[in-house]
Structures are given as structure tokens and as C-alpha cells.
């Protein structure tokens, strides 16, 4: 009885904290976005606001549509990869369901703590009847595959650029190592054993779940699966790199396809390493800095950075916000059906 009362009090305390946490996270996110925008606007005003504004308005509607279409290619190819991993895991979900989960998760791309991944896991749990620890390998292998694909694409792009990108090769090597470690069942099992020992064998359920997740990772490591997944990831991110190259050409700053892709991918990885939601701040700063170092005038580098981030990150969020209510309704219907069966 006492244990039941304690659990109830803990649950109520957690529920009471939820609105506060949401307000805190939204305040942090809003402040971060405002700082990024203020930095871009301030720099534009200091270096030539008229030139920056002219560059922003120089694009046609057709050009903007093409940029968005290339971003959509990226999302669809990575959505197909998510479906591939989901099928290998054995969730039994259809292509439409998996694409709905993947796209809907974009709504949470810039929330702290990668909440979008948790939302996808919740939808899978409702529609497939799976617990979070059973779906965790899917999220882990998707993140690892993204790291590997972007590292490979960056390495390929670097071979076609004469100017290079400072610090690119260490990022390539680190990303490949992290991707390999995250997808190795033996390493995850050893990490679970080490963590169990470090906590003096406390939290046994947590580390048991990690071990179960490690065993499930073996389903993704077949050569055929990894080759297809890597191809989808590289092709998807390359589409956005090509969009960045086209944007620079249209704005009168053709630095070459290889260099444009290298800068875009490197900045995206660097933004992720900052830990900021969606790489906000870090990615923008890296793109501007690398473009200027490559000889692109600041009055072009700034609007190019703003446009490519809107047509990639913020376009994904817009798609996620559109799909999210649909995914939520469908998952609730599936949950009700499971409970009534």
C-alpha cells in the first residue's frame, strides 16, 4: 500500500513538472532561434543590408520550388531507409505507416533532446504494440546510418574540391567511428555491462533493456541491408548538397559542386556536434564562415545560408507539423483497436 502511494505521488510530481518542462524547453528554443536570427540580421546590416536583401529577392518561384523538391528527395529516401530498418526489425508496419512516422517526427526536429525520435517510438508502440526498448534499436541504427552516410558523402565531396574544408577529415573519421560503434551489438553489450558495474549493479532493468537492444542490432548488420541503407542516405543528403550548389550558382557564387556539398555536409555535422536542437547556430555559423573563407562575399554568404536552412531544416519542420496530427490520429485509432481486440 505504501509503495503504491509512493508511486502515485511520483507520477503526480512528474505530471506536474511536464508543463513547466515544456515551457522551459520552448523558451530555450525560442531564445536560440532569436539569437541566430539576430546574428544574421546584425551581420547583414553591418556588411550591406541592401546587397543582402537584393540577393534574397533574386530567386524566382521556380528556383525555390526546385530547392524544396531536392529537400523532399532527401526526406523520401531517408524515409525509405527508415522503412527498410523497420522491416528488418520486424515491426510489421507498412510503408505508408513508416513514412508517416518518419515525416511526422520532423515536427520535433528543433526540440531539445531529440523528442522527435521519442514521438516516432510512441507511434510505433501504439500501432505495433511494441515497448520503447524494442523500438530503440531502430532509432539508434537510423542515427548511426545518417552519420555514416554524411561522412562518406563528405569524403567523396572532398576529392572533387581544390580548396578543401579545414577540419573535414577528422570529422569524417570521427563520424565513421561513432557510426560503427553505435551499430555493433558486441560494443553495446559491453557498454551495458560496464554501465551496470559502474552503477554498482543498480538499475538492472535499464541495462537489461540495453542488452536486448544490442541483440536486436544484429538484424541490421547484414551486408545487403547496410549497402542499401548507405546508398539511400548518401543519395538523400547529396540531393540537399546539390540544392546548395544550385543556390550559390543562381546567386553568382559558383564555388564548384564538390566544395558546395562539402561545406553543406560539414556544417550540418558541425551543427549537430554543438548539441543545439537542429544544429541551430552552429550550422549557420559554419556555412557563413566556410563560404567567406572560400571567397564568397558576405552579402551573398548570409542570404545563401538563410535560404538553404529554410529550404532544408525549416521545410522539414513544416512537413512534420502537417503530418503530425494525422500520425497522432492514426496511432490512437490503432491503440484503441488493440485495446478492444
TrEMBL record:
Membrane-traversing stretches: 56-77, 147-180, 220-238, 244-267, 306-327
Membrane-protein topology: Multi-pass membrane protein
Predominant location: membrane
GO CC annotation: plasma membrane
Localization in the cell: Cell membrane
Keyword entries, A-Z: Cell membrane, Membrane, Transmembrane, Transmembrane helix
The name this protein goes by in its record: Flippase-like domain-containing protein
Organism for this UniProt entry: Kangsaoukella pontilimi
